[in-house]
Design brief:
single chain, about 350 residues, alpha/beta, Metallo-beta-lactamase, Chain A, 7-stranded mixed beta sheet, 8 helices, globular
């Protein structure tokens, strides 16, 4: 028996060594202490940020009040245009946090995930309950990929390899420390950005890495060793905000101060229950609506719901709650759109 126990822990160690992101090394800042990143406004004891989160995680697992999810087919199956020129802005909800943004002749995809499961292991981990809304073969040429953080439902190496194989010149933007991991796994042409750092795509369009309230890890030993973030796409016709995964925090006001008006925001609404556990890192539908108001967004589109069963909210709860908030809001009603996988929309 003892040799089997030793072999088990050896396998765990080797898996961790292969899967874990190597620690980022750089200058100390207000969100990096020289070893780990952390979210501004959260105390060092907040769970999901430190090593003691495993006790709370196990408590959640033992007492989960989840609901049964069912596999569903999509009502839409988009085949996007190859290019959208000028100020026209078309957004297609592919699945989860994967959105196709087309404007100014540039095609941008966010946190692309086409895998059947979001896990490092075959046949284990959260599985897909809805198919992607745009077949990979129907994607237009991808110029830019935005990666908000390194969790498996947001940084899907298999999908990134497919993108790089088909469109070798596409550029990947991610938070500090992620380029090294991507390169190790065969994904090149990536650029690391720190919060508020900007890269110019072309005259009039820039990608800005912005703060978020979340955490990072690919394995057991690399908690918060790479940076999580959102992005603002600056364009001549208005700025576009992709929130990635985030809780509601002090960064919302700081973001509004830098960008008083946003043309579009892509905001997560799912994986928020139980709120005592998920609240620091996943906004609820109510908090997403509050972000819409606080950021003075002209149009918001919901994401991060309905495809992978990641928390205890039921399958339809996040979009139903947003629709209820809209119905009960005073005039003028908030312009917060719920799309289905594969559904495109033209943003004014």
């Amino acid at each position: 028996m003892f040799p089997f126990i030793i072999a088990y822990f050896v396998l765990l160690y080797l898996a961790d060594r292969w899967l874990a992101a190597r620690p980022y090394k750089g200058h100390i800042s207000d969100h990096f202490n020289g070893k780990k990143f952390y979210s501004i406004g959260l105390s060092s004891g907040d769970h999901l940020m430190e090593h003691n989160d495993w006790k709370l995680f196990l408590k959640w697992v033992r007492h989960r009040a989840t609901s049964k999810w069912y596999k569903r087919e999509n009502r839409f199956s988009a085949k996007p245009r190859e290019r959208v020129l000028g100020s026209e802005l078309v957004v297609t909800f592919i699945n989860h946090a994967t959105m196709l943004i087309q404007t100014e002749g540039v095609n941008i995809i966010t946190d692309p995930v086409y895998s059947k499961r979001v896990s490092p292991f075959i046949g284990i981990g959260p599985k897909r309950y809805r198919p992607v809304g745009v077949r990979f073969e129907d994607l237009p040429p991808i110029d830019i990929v935005l990666i908000s953080h390194n969790h498996y439902d947001h940084m899907d190496i298999t999908t990134l390899k497919r993108i790089k194989k088909k469109w070798n010149k596409s550029i990947i933007y991610a938070g500090l420390g992620n380029t090294r991991y991507l390169r190790k796994h065969g994904v090149r042409n990536a650029i690391d950005l720190d919060w508020w750092e900007k890269d110019i795509v072309h005259e009039g369009m820039s990608i800005v890495c912005v703060p978020a309230q979340h955490f990072s890890s690919r394995a057991f030993s690399d908690r918060n060793r790479t940076l999580w973030c959102g992005f603002v796409i600056e364009t001549p016709s208005g700025n576009i905000y992709f929130a990635g995964d985030t809780g509601y925090g002090d960064f919302v006001q700081k973001l509004h101060e830098r960008y008083p008006v946003l043309r579009l925001a892509l905001l997560p609404i799912g994986a928020f229950r139980p709120q005592w556990f998920m609240g620091p890192v996943h906004v609820s539908p109510d908090e997403a609506m509050q972000m819409h108001r606080d950021l003075k967004v002209q149009t918001s589109i919901a994401m991060h719901f309905g495809t992978f069963h990641l928390a205890d909210d039921h399958q339809d709860e996040p979009p139903e709650r947003i629709l209820d908030l809209i119905a009960n809001a005073p005039e003028p009603k908030p312009n917060f759109i719920i799309l289905e996988n594969g559904e495109p929309t033209i943003v004014e």
